[in-house]
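Complex record, two chains
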Amino acid sequence: MRNPVLAATAAVVTLMFAGCGSGSSGSPDEIRLRMIESLTGPERTKLIKSLIADFERANPGVTVELISPPLDSADQKITQILQTKKGLDVLEVRDHTAKSFSNNGWLAELPTTGWPGWQDLTELAQKKAVEVGGKAYLIPYGFYQRTLFYRTDFGMTAPPATWQELYEAGRKMTSGDRYGYSFRGGKGGADYAVMMISAYNGDALNPEKSFYLKDKRTIFSTPEATQALDLFVKIFKETSPPDSVSWGYPEMVQGFTSGVTGMLIQDPEVIKTVEESGVTAWSTAPIPKGPTGYAYQPVGYAGWGVTSFSEHPKEAVKLVQFLSEAKQSIAFAKGNSLIPISRQAQSDPQFSQGAWKAYLQAQQDPKQVITIRPVDYPGWSQFLVDSDRDIQALITGKKTTAEVLKAWDTFWVDQAKKVS
Amino acid sequence: MRTFTVRRARFIALCLLPGVVFVVLFTYYPMVRGAVIAFQRYNLFDLTSTPFTGLENFRAVLAEDRFWTALRNTGTWVAVSLFFQFFLGFGLALLLRRHFRGRGLYQAWVFFPWAMSGFLIGLLWRWMFNGQFGVVNDLLLKAGLIEERIGFLASPGWAMTSVIVANIWYGVTFFAIMIMAALQSVPGELYEAAAVDGASRLRRFWHVTLPHIRPTLALIVLLRIIWILNFPDLIYAMTGGGPAGSTDIITTFLIQQVIGGDYGRAGAVGLLILALLLAFSIFYLNATRFEKAR
């Protein structure tokens, strides 16, 4: 190339793209996998890295580079990388991203036959692995199921079994700077309203499509939904700190551990946080029920998947399987206070004693029902954003119960038409 | 001679090339792509079919009350933040211009916020303004200024005030830095001449300092308006646009479209912001040019 400008251009472009390649390796025999996590946190990342180190020791010649983007923007980052269809082999897939990722052809189907680890997965783990289109696009690493945390030093002898009892107990606890309930009014707040509305709809609800009743109407269209949402507002106004209009996860937990609130409904990962906080007088119970004796909640989950464009699919699958096998998955569930995916964990004392007992109780109660939310409907992500704002508008008096329920009903009636 | 000029031009082009490639790849390409997406049905849920839908995304956005609320909030957010940032920054610059012991250290300390990420600042202020555990409430209670805790981020009126206070704290230093630089560029002889003519300090400021730094002020005010409008980080971390959209500005509204997975609508909002800023910049530059010509 005699023209220096052309030569320089080629050099610059080559240098720029050299850093963008995927699966590039230092030596010809080395295989480098790139893996990205979504629900990042310092301790969790450390744990994943230690499991990866075990994998690398068991698989000489394979190295894994872990990418840990900031929690708040992780899913957007993952989506951006997936859109380029390069530079990624293994990724964390969440319940609400599984459908869109697979729809867009970004996930590879994982082999389940011929892998002994599959048989060791609990029934729930197997079910959730193939929830999207009947194909295993991810292997869950654990489950997030909510439970009621309550402080026994707040004068409570027995936990509330219904939402009405929770409201009454909360009122008793509320005085001065002390409140009954850690209300979630910020991001994710609408989920709690939906949980109450579901419980109030009782056995009319269709657990497989939990925003709809068995007669195909939405759960937001019934008089019971109005009762539930009215009580939801009362719980906020009469038992919760006014500031909780903007509380998210950290404030809720901080409220409970600092002694500002006496009750909290949260995922099992809070068990570890409460244990480490120094609070000693506390216990857990299954989430409250509605008037007909039913409680509904989805089980949140996430897992590991392999990209459809991985340059090393064999090794990527091997890594996912390694992380999902009993030893690693139990270590991960313990480290993150998750409900484990391995059948072998049932004999582990950690998961059958103390605060974990409430989960076993819930599992044994046929009226504590696990539901499936319509995460696979095109408007799901939009609803998450809009419904949280509606809840804030409701509890700050900018919208009425009727307006919120009407809007949600219209939205999901429209979604049903789009899907059918 | 001609060969030398051609060679020189080639050399300059060569030096500029990496920059041009980067700008095209990382600024203009995403911008054009975003503009195209604004006219497509581009929902993250299903990217296998992304047909062109004309102005549909714009119609949907403009039909939303939330968009107009966000637009009104943007006006408050920019105007109030800018007003206080400017005047406090100006005051700070005048103070820091003076020579005193430890000035360098003091300057570094004052300018420190500017070096931090907006999102991080938002998180810090979110905890400071927390109604139950926040330090602001504690201080006000201990000082006897309030009798009960204020839900700074819980009530719509307080929430907007709180995010603006945080933004003022953040942006004052920018004005202080820029105005201080402008002040240092005023020739000392002008002040000496004015002093000889018997001008008071106020008259010197009004007739010497201000005219000299006015072009810089006009430019930094324009820049700051654009930056404040495009600064959702702090609001997003502090309130997420809540409660009930009361702190939503047009750029947090855009983020919500992205999180909702509707990139088409997000693209439309992006283009509307661009049009708004472009129209404002043209108006502002014309207005300040007129001022200069007069």
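Note: Chain A touches chain B at residues 4-5, 8-9, 12-13, 16, 72, 76, 79, 83, 99-100, 103-105, 177, 185-187, 241-246, 251, 254-255, 258, 260, 378, 380-382, 384-386, 388-389, 392-393, 396, 398-399 (CB under 8 Å).
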